[in-house]
Amino acid sequence: MMGVLKGMRVVEGSAFVAIPLAGMTLAQMGADVIRFDRLEGGLDHHRWPVTKDGQSLFWAGLNKGKRSIAIDMKHPRGRELITQIICAPGPDAGLFLTNLRVRGWMDHETLSTHRPDLVMVTLLGDRHGRPAVDYTVNPAVGFPDATGPEGSADPVAHVLPAWDCIAGNMAVTGLLAAERHRLRTGQGQSVEIALKDVAAAMLGNLGIIGEVAVNGVDRPKNGNALYGAYGQDFVCADGERVMVIGLTDRQWRGLVEVTNTGAAIAALEAELGTSLADEGARWLHRARITAILAPWFAANRVAEFGAAFDKAGVTWSLFRSFARALDEDPDFSSANPIFAQIDQPGIGSYPVPGSPFAFSAAGREPPAPAPLLGQHTEEILADVAGLPGGEIARLFDEGIVRGA
Amino acid sequence: MMGVLKGMRVVEGSAFVAIPLAGMTLAQMGADVIRFDRLEGGLDHHRWPVTKDGQSLFWAGLNKGKRSIAIDMKHPRGRELITQIICAPGPDAGLFLTNLRVRGWMDHETLSTHRPDLVMVTLLGDRHGRPAVDYTVNPAVGFPDATGPEGSADPVAHVLPAWDCIAGNMAVTGLLAAERHRLRTGQGQSVEIALKDVAAAMLGNLGIIGEVAVNGVDRPKNGNALYGAYGQDFVCADGERVMVIGLTDRQWRGLVEVTNTGAAIAALEAELGTSLADEGARWLHRARITAILAPWFAANRVAEFGAAFDKAGVTWSLFRSFARALDEDPDFSSANPIFAQIDQPGIGSYPVPGSPFAFSAAGREPPAPAPLLGQHTEEILADVAGLPGGEIARLFDEGIVRGA
Fold it and tell me: What InterPro entries does this protein map onto (chains A, B) (predicted)?
């Protein structure tokens, strides 16, 4: 590994999306990330999507570039070894990411008796430590009720586990910030963050709490419209659906120009007595604008107007299914330097993303496959825990650890 | 500021969600974050939601705890001053976050002639540098086509700008990782990340690329079901809608137990010849499971079963609107240590979130209001650019800078 975090070692005890994503993000920047799991694999070891042979594409996706050790956590010796691996010496080690929340031997208080400068980042469900998942946090804070067609009473949950993805990246931030603090002060610490608090804070960050508390407005469903300015989906003559954005002045002017609707928009402005150069006015009068633009899209084909849109600085996109996006878009192929076709043992060869970062001083890490469960058990026991070969062999014999 | 990043100085040239969120995240961890804007404010200065007086709740939400300088970027002296502020000396300064992509005087090559160890993080639209926003990236990669009621042909866009929120947090990670590298090597660098690449990579991370490329499956809409295991929304006797999760063994057993559906589930298992203890089997047969559970929810009220669900370890949530969430949930009040009721000048007093992180060695920063545009112009010119009072006065007189 040659990445920007080369030399850093992070231990991960995790399952599901957020913390595995955090560890993977660090691994893809060059850190040595060790994920430990119980002998039969963690809760996400067989998580869907799976191949026809039952191999988890989810595990493969979220554990790329890590090392894996499989170990019996119910056995006292297993617990000792995990403690030793988490608290192994080295100025760039002693960094632990988890969402497992095991009290006693694996909490910050106990672990830091073994390494007082340990940095431990824990993702909680809610701030009380109760379980919460993306699928429950999202309805609790209100997004599904504001999602979907205008006027519908049915809530629509998001499909991207967005809170997990955000919280996972925040866990990386928390770890790097605490490690920076340790470098300056020598002091380790416990960093906690709750999935629900991440969502609650974002509601405030985006102005939604103010909208309720100050304006007394409970945002309704607005279909696929871009909130607060102009952006709308249209069906075209060829049956394609496109999303078209008129958020900035340039985008808006470009959209009016290419669709040749300047006269109709000017007439609407005169009728309303307002300038649609103001983004808030575009939002308030979006239905009228859409009524002007929709016939144009219904009469035109993407193949005909796409290039003109690009040229005029209109920001737009097709709606595509996942398969169509992969099939048509070179950004999902090795034409994009973040992607490479690699072989994932047990699954086969398919396009795999590395880190989306380009660090000019560190170069790009090519994507690495995910480990098989226990693939690095032996080398981790030797290199990190510092055990002699005979002892490692005994651990295998006694079934306290296993390999791939 | 007493936060974990105390002493760090970051300069931000930005608009909209991702980079303002990145700067705010750093400010809420104690960094001195200076946002510069043109004299009339950036593209997001009046972004909706706005108050009845036209004050932006969006600006207030995403710029909390920063300092603001308003400056004429078309004037050569304005450009010089911004360069001086970005490249000001100090081992913990020289950190620049941007999505403005100004070529020439504000690109990494030019700025680093003034401070060779500058760390500059740039968020692009796509990897070619073309504009892209959350609202176009999302349909391009496929999520709206997979969102919404089963069988519907209409795409549903998410309302949370999830890609912006993820990319903003990744920008923080990129900055901290590059600053760590600089501390060890003395070397600055340019860090680039594209919004669309963030989304494309996540499609791979979550196993969706593998699902298409290896399994040949283009995931259809699955309503509000939790993908890959069991989780479903139900309407209850009191008209409430709840999301109920049976992802882990414990959640699933708890759900069957409290709803007293053990016999019916066992009969279903016998009929299918499969164990629903397997999460993949629960996913495949989710419609049958839902048919067993739905009558129970339709006959019971949340007030009656909520406590039993909690006791049995079932993970569940109500669906609520934004306003109802704020009204009912103490997690949005100062009962939650991340929130405080604070006065935002020009807007008034309302509940505002600070950082969702709890750093044990640094304490919690109370949330701070967002600056007014240009509120810190004078002090930044004095403290950071090091200008004498007479020169600062001339800059105000000549209209090259302005205050709040």
Answer: CoA-transferase_III (IPR050509), CoA-Trfase_fam_III (IPR003673), CoA-Trfase_III_dom3_sf (IPR044855), CoA-Trfase_III_dom_1_sf (IPR023606)
A36 and B200 Cβ atoms separated by less than 8 Å:
no
Q: Is A336 on the interface with B (CB under 8 A)?
A: yes
Query: What's the start-to-end Cα distance of chain B, in Å?
Result: 22
User: Is there a contact between A233 and B157 if contact means CB atoms under 8 Å apart?
Assistant: yes
Picking from A339, A202, A58, A333, the residue whose alpha carbon sits closest to that of residue B158 is A202
Nearest to B196 by CA among B134, B146, B147, B142: B134
What structural domains and CATH numbers belong to chain B?
Answer: 9-202+335-402 (3.40.50.10540), 230-318 (3.30.1540)
C-alpha A48/C-alpha B207 separation (Å) is 8
Class of residue B367 by CB neighbours under 10 A (exposed 0-12, middle 13-18, buried 19+):
buried
Give the nearest partner residue to A280 out of B46, B146, B229, using CB atoms: B46
CB B2: neighbour CB atoms within 10 A? 10
Q: Which residue of A has its CA nearest to B316?
A: A136
In single-letter form, the type of residue at position B68 comes to: S
Helices (H) and strands (E) in chain A, counts: 16, 13
Q: Which of A51, A61, A336 has the CB atom closest to B205's CB atom? A: A61
Query: Chain B within 8 Å of A19 (Cβ-Cβ)?
Result: no
Which two tokens mark B104?
């020439």
**Using CA atoms, how far apart are residues A45 and A47, in angstroms rounded to an integer?**
6
Sign of CA dihedral A296, A298, A300, A306: positive
Q: How far is A391 from chain B (nearest CA, A)?
A: 34
Phi, psi of B58 (to 5 degrees): -70, -50
Q: What is the pTM of this model?
A: 0.98
Residue B382, burial from CB neighbour count under 10 angstroms (0-12, 13-18, 19+): middle
d(CA A191, CA A174): 7
By the 8 A CB rule, do A322 and B219 touch?
yes
**String of b and e for B26-51 (b: at least 16 CB within 10 Å)?**
bbbbbbbbbbbbbbebbbbbbbbbbb
A218 in catalytic set: no
* Surface-to-core class of residue A397, CB atoms within 10 Å of its CB (0-12 exposed, 13-18 middle, 19+ buried): exposed
**Tens digits of residue pLDDT in A334-368:** 999 999 999 999 999 999 999 999 999 998 889 99
Cα angle A28, A40, A43 (rounded to 5 degrees) comes to: 65
Each of the 404 residues of chain B gets a pLDDT tens digit; together they read: 479 999 999 999 999 999 999 999 999 999 999 999 999 999 999 999 999 999 999 999 999 999 999 999 999 999 999 999 999 999 999 999 999 988 899 999 999 999 999 999 999 999 998 999 999 999 999 999 999 999 999 999 999 999 999 999 999 999 999 999 999 999 999 999 999 999 999 999 999 999 999 999 999 999 999 999 999 999 999 999 999 999 999 999 999 999 999 999 999 999 999 999 999 999 999 999 999 999 999 999 999 999 999 999 899 999 999 999 999 999 999 999 999 999 999 999 999 999 999 999 998 889 999 999 999 999 999 999 999 999 999 999 999 999 99
Nearest residue to B316 via CA among B401, B404, B234: B234
> Cα–Cα distance between A308 and A259 in angstroms, integer?
10
